[in-house]
Design goal:
Number of strands: 24
Shape: elongated
Strand content: 25-35%
Helix content: 10-25%
Largest sheet: 8 strands, mixed
CATH class of the largest domain: Alpha Beta
Radius of gyration: 21 Å
Distance between the termini: 42 Å
């Protein structure tokens, strides 16, 4: 049986190897083809700077220890030619892996998509212990849907992608996949399904909270975070933060907060809050409620600065923000390994690979 940390996956005609930084030119060439972008981008291809900024997320590994590639470069075994890429990466729900693919147009129609997809579905169940593999495509993308069907996935859901384009979600469960065996390993079960939270006692009468003395935090001047009510003032019951996000920026990748309920109130401008298959556009004066376990982020694709408050219950994430800002230097790349470790400590699950999709879909930049 092939180990999860094996250097590659081979099929009859393809060799899949972990995506590498040296593939940047190939990725840029792939995305430069308007026909390739037809069903995956809503605008111009990403700039080289945006691609290079997102590349560390595509090179990320998962598992404990993190050895499993999220993205695979596909090459022809006979010629060594670059065909495109596949991804098999953790979804927001534990035990679920997300399948994706993007191939060069001159390699379409040869069955490479379904051949690579079948190999990764097999890997997901037999070697990685996944409960389910799922994939998403625009409803008009008949070729991509055929790949999913040939890989054994079946239609589960129809929804609006980015809130505006009809899309479909296909999936296959472990019990439906022929030959799958074994229980999901610990790295796909890193967090418990139910968490009991015990709050320390708080006052039972109204209390005037003094202004927070914590200075505002700044992420490269594009995203400012101020702690308005620290958790220590409420006995850990909740914390209130105020954010300012400049036009054209996304603050975080899609992520799940396993314990916290989040309430966002927009003070100025219009905030975009993407989630699982749904995007909320929140104007000034509106609120967005995010329950525990829901995937979301916030970004500002508009022309004006956005200000909003974030109430988090129970408290604790205000301390996360204070720590994570120190790992994002004003120049250079952030320390992704340290950020991943810090996020896990606070019970956050980040989909780092979603950053590239967010950048392309909403035409925003990374903070």
């Amino acid at each position: 049986m092939q180990r999860p940390d094996a250097p590659g996956v081979e099929t009859a005609r393809l060799r899949l190897r972990p995506l590498a930084a040296a593939d940047a030119d190939r990725l840029a060439e792939l995305d430069a083809d308007p026909e390739v972008r037809r069903y995956v981008h809503l605008g111009a291809p990403p700039t080289r700077a945006e691609l290079e900024a997102a590349l560390p997320c595509m090179l990320a590994r998962f598992g404990e220890p993190p050895v499993e590639p999220a993205f695979w470069a596909a090459e022809e075994r006979s010629t060594g030619a670059f065909v495109g890429w596949f991804h098999l990466r953790p979804a927001a729900e534990p035990g679920v892996l997300e399948l994706g693919y993007r191939l060069r147009r001159d390699r379409w129609g040869r069955g490479y998509g379904s051949e690579g997809a079948r190999a990764l579905v097999e890997r997901a169940f037999r070697h990685l212990g996944a409960d389910r593999v799922e994939a998403v495509a625009l409803a008009e993308n008949a070729a991509s849907i055929r790949v999913m069907e040939k890989a054994g996935l079946r239609l589960r859901e129809q929804f609006l992608y980015a809130g505006e384009r009809p899309a479909v979600r296909y999936a296959v469960e472990r019990g439906e996949h022929e030959g799958a065996d074994g229980a999901p390993p610990p790295h796909l079960r890193s967090l418990p399904t139910h968490t009991t939270i015990v709050h320390p006692p708080v006052e039972t009468t109204p209390v005037l909270l003094p202004p927070a003395e914590t200075p505002a935090l700044s992420v490269r001047g594009h995203w400012t975070i101020g702690v308005r009510v620290p958790g220590e003032s409420t006995g850990g019951a909740l914390a209130v933060l105020e954010h300012a996000l400049e036009p054209g920026y996304v603050a975080l990748p899609l992520h799940r907060r396993r314990r916290e309920t989040t309430l966002i109130q927009v003070l100025e401008g219009k905030l975009t809050v993407p989630g699982d298959g749904r995007t909320v556009s929140a104007p000034a004066g509106s609120c967005v409620a995010v329950p525990p376990g829901a995937a979301f982020t916030f970004l500002n694709p508009g022309p004006e600065r956005v200000r909003f408050t974030e109430t988090v219950a129970p408290a604790g994430l205000e301390l996360y923000y204070q720590e994570v800002v120190t790992l994002i230097p004003g120049g250079g790349r952030p320390d992704m390994e340290a950020i991943h470790s810090l996020s896990a400590r606070y019970g956050l699950e980040f989909d780092l690979a979603s950053l590239l999709d967010l950048v392309e879909r909403y035409r925003v930049h990374l903070t």
